[in-house]
User: Which sequence fits this backbone?
């Protein structure tokens, strides 16, 4: 028996203005599963994540999250869905004018009618889960990069979400701290059976945390499969990414001539940089 | 032909900009006036601390500037009035031009420099560091959370600051009046009060409320429109200041003309 997918994408297309970034993406995510989205810079993986949390509107296709099509929801429905998801941003995106405790408490204060004392206990609990107990009264600026990410995860966990999204959880961290974040993700997976969607280009961490992996390149899905399937894949683009092979240099004379005379490519770097 | 189409395009862009300002102001007004009665409370505490920042902390510099402006007005008016032997009319000249025009305008310009730019920089920085996105993914409207308290603070504080600016201007004028025009301070102030109609003050206050809306809308819109990196935050801040000054003058012209024709009937 297969469970209903918690997230289901059908032929999703996203454009910035005239340029299409994602050209028809379809996949399902099952409840409790950890899906790692791999891809190089400018591959569209950040755009995909932003679309999944409703920060970008799809230009075509369907995104079903818990039975709602994001492409057709009203603002009120969207807010209801957002209360069930959490998002940890690349830089943490903690509010600099509030303490760590206030940051974690914010969704609870905004969306629940809990008493202050209850909220305080929940904040302490969430911070403990990410290994930051006792840091309630620190300002985000006083935390290191890894601690900021942990605090951001605590804030994303505040509303006990069913789906948790991570944007580049280990980017810009040293290997030891990054390994700590991987451990945290594994714990969340084990303890809460949460559905996790992680965007990354760190291969080691991807193989460690993933149930299934999705490789996207230039706005298309290249491969989708379990960790084992990906490891054994013989698809050239997958192998190139996993074996960390650089783009081949232009070798032949005719190729070089073609490069010089060809029409210019549309710049696509700016779109890939969004959300970074 | 190309010039005509360019002018057309610019005009449409300009109107579009004013349209988005109005849309932002409307949404902020909804979250300030309507939403609190639908169970989405306003962040009153945030509005109060914002009002402290834009209002109370602006008092020293605003007082100094408007005191000098009042004095300058008195000197300039006296230069002309002296030729008619009407130097005692200097009190009227200062009081009327301060309350009707310069009080609201100078206040607006000081507030643009202090707060309009700060709004754009604050929201722009939050945009760049994904904090605005974080708010949205937490189902918290950035307009309700960030923009609405600023609107409330500005709409209350600008008229208050304007009244203060008017008084300081009149006080500045009195320095000249007492030193050069045979007034006592008491008589100068009395002459100023006698010369003012209630209408002079209310038109100034109506304008100041409109200035407050304009400055907040431009500052917040420029902040929210920031895309890219830290460099863009600086650019947004500059744009916010320049656009605010321009639009405040346009709003000023519109309302001055409106009051002129409405009053002359």
Assistant:
């Amino acid at each position: 028996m297969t469970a209903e997918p918690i997230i289901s994408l059908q032929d999703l297309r996203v454009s910035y203005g005239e340029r299409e970034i994602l050209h028809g993406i379809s996949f399902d995510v099952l409840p409790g599963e950890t899906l790692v989205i791999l891809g190089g810079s400018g591959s569209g993986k950040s755009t995909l994540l932003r679309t999944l949390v409703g920060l970008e509107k799809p230009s075509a296709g369907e995104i079903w999250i818990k039975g709602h099509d994001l492409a057709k929801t009203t603002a009120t429905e969207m807010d209801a869905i957002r209360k069930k998801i959490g998002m940890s941003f690349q830089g943490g995106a903690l509010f600099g004018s509030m303490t760590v405790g206030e940051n974690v408490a914010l969704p609870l204060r905004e969306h629940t009618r809990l008493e202050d004392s209850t909220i305080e206990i929940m904040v302490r609990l969430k911070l403990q889960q990410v290994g930051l107990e006792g840091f309630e009264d620190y300002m985000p600026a006083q935390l290191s990069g890894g601690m900021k990410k942990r605090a951001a995860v605590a804030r994303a966990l505040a509303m006990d979400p069913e789906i948790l999204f991570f944007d580049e959880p280990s980017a810009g961290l040293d290997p030891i701290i990054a390994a700590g974040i991987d451990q945290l993700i594994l714990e969340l997976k084990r303890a809460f059976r949460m559905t996790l969607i992680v965007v990354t280009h760190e291969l080691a961490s991807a193989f460690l945390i993933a149930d299934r992996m999705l490789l996207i390149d230039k706005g298309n899905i290249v491969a989708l499969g379990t960790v084992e399937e990906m490891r054994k894949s013989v698809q050239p683009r997958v192998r190139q990414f996993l074996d960390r092979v650089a783009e081949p240099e232009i070798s032949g004379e005719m190729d070089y001539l073609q490069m010089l005379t060809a029409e210019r490519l549309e710049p696509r770097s700016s779109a890939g940089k969004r959300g970074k | 032909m190309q010039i005509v189409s360019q002018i057309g395009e610019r005009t449409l862009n300009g109107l579009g900009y004013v349209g988005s300002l109005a849309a932002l102001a409307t949404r902020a007004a909804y979250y300030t006036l309507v939403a609190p009665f639908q169970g989405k409370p306003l962040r009153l505490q945030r509005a109060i601390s914002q009002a402290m920042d834009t209002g109370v902390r602006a008092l020293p510099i605003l007082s100094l500037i408007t005191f000098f402006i009042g004095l300058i007005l008195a000197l300039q008016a006296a230069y002309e009035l002296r030729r008619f032997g009407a130097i005692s009319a200097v009190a009227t000249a200062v009081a009327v031009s301060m309350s009707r025009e310069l009080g609201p305008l100078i206040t607006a310009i000081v507030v643009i420099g202090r707060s309009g730019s700060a709004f754009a920089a604050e929201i722009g920085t939050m945009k760049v560091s994904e904090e605005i996105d974080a708010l949205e993914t937490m189902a918290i409207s950035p307009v309700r959370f960030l923009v609405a308290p600023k609107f409330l603070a500005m709409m209350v504080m600008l008229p208050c600051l304007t009244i203060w600016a008017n008084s300081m201007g009149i006080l500045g004028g009195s320095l000249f009046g007492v030193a050069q025009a045979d007034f006592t301070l008491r008589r100068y102030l009395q002459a100023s009060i006698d010369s003012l109609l209630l209408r002079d003050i209310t038109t100034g206050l109506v304008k100041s409320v409109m200035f407050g809306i304009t400055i907040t809308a431009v500052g917040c819109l420029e902040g929210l429109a920031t895309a890219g990196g830290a460099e863009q935050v600086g650019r947004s801040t500059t744009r916010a200041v320049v656009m605010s000054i321009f639009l405040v003058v346009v709003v000023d012209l519109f309302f001055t003309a409106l009051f002129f024709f409405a009053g002359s009937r």
